[in-house]
Amino acid sequence: MASTALAGMISKVDLRGLEPGGPGWAEARAAVTASMEAHGAVLVAHDALGAELRRRLFERAAPELFAIPAEVKRSLVSGLIHGYIGPRPEAPAYESARVWEAAVDGTVVRDVAGVVWPHGNPAFSDTIGEFAQNMLDLQKTVEAMILEGLGVGREHIDSHLRSLNYSVRLSHYGSLAEMGNEMFMQAHKDCTVLSLLSQHDVDGLELQLNDGSWLSVPAEPGTFTVVAGDLLTVVTNGRVPANVHRVRTPSDRERFSVQFESRPRYGWTVRPAEELVDEEHPRQYSPCNFDEYVDFRFVGDGRKSSDPLKSFCGVVKDEE
Ligand SMILES: O=C(O)CCC(=O)C(=O)O
Ligand SMILES: [Fe+2]
């Protein structure tokens, strides 16, 4: 197992060819868990997005999706393709679409393109389906590694994995001239459990480390950035912080990225794993209903809070 520390702080761990419990697994698990506990992020090397699939995803599927007429994109608010975010005054050339969702039972929906293209688009559906299937395996591996590394038992890891939904999110940013400002996306935490992110060609992703400094992640094929979202903080009883990250690039070229995200299933209530609550680690979060939290954070009073997760379900709320 190869594990190196980028900028002396965040680990990059090679997960290629590793099997649970096999050679190198324990070492990789320790490196992944330590980086997640310290920074809420780790970089992993993996072949889930090989050169040929990568080309199909970023040079065909993503440009085709963002090239559809604006009114069709705006209508993509429900169904298999949904969650479209269009240009806004603060990000005039940014678009993002969640293009697939399902797989609680590991199945992949392949007919996503029928929603957008009247006659379908088999190449698009196959590309998204293949990517999702590969990423599902990697995502489950990383998530199990983190929980196992923290001491959560197999039974609870399995029930946690069964409680998740997964989705693919494609994002497109115009050039610096079109965006108008090199801060393409402001610093934020994701509301996911875990996001695995890959940048195409143009760098820009920056992760905040636990000393407050920013680490710029190179856009390297074969490397995924694993970022903890708010809900992993709940599951781990605060042991894994949600990573703060942003996108900043002075590039004069358009930029594409893809994220494979895990979130609790609709209506699901997430609670800290029992193994992570004891005398030394008192309970930090009350049970958190995901949908209610998302409403609170993005539409409700949580918008005014510097720590919406804590305001919503923190056991101690008075330190803000
Ligand atoms: O495009 C990227 O590299 C990161 C995007 C991101 O952080 C997000 O969409 O939440
Ligand atoms: Fe993000």
Give a quick account of the main beta sheet: strands, pairing sense, barrel closure.
Answer: 9 strands, mixed
Identify every distinct bound molecule in the structure, by name, code or SMILES.
2-oxoglutaric acid, fe (ii) ion
Mean pLDDT: 89
**CATH architecture identity of the domain at 39-148 and 165-266:** Sandwich
- Structural class assignment: alpha+beta
Keywords: Dioxygenase, Iron, Metal-binding, Oxidoreductase
InterPro entries: IPNS-like_FE2OG_OXY, IPNS-like_sf, Iron_ascorbate_oxido_reductase, Oxoglu/Fe-dep_dioxygenase_dom
Domain Fe2OG dioxygenase: 164-264
Function: 2-oxoglutarate-dependent dioxygenase essential for auxin catabolism and maintenance of auxin homeostasis in reproductive organs. Catalyzes the irreversible oxidation of indole-3-acetic acid (IAA) to the biologically inactive 2-oxoindole-3-acetic acid (OxIAA).
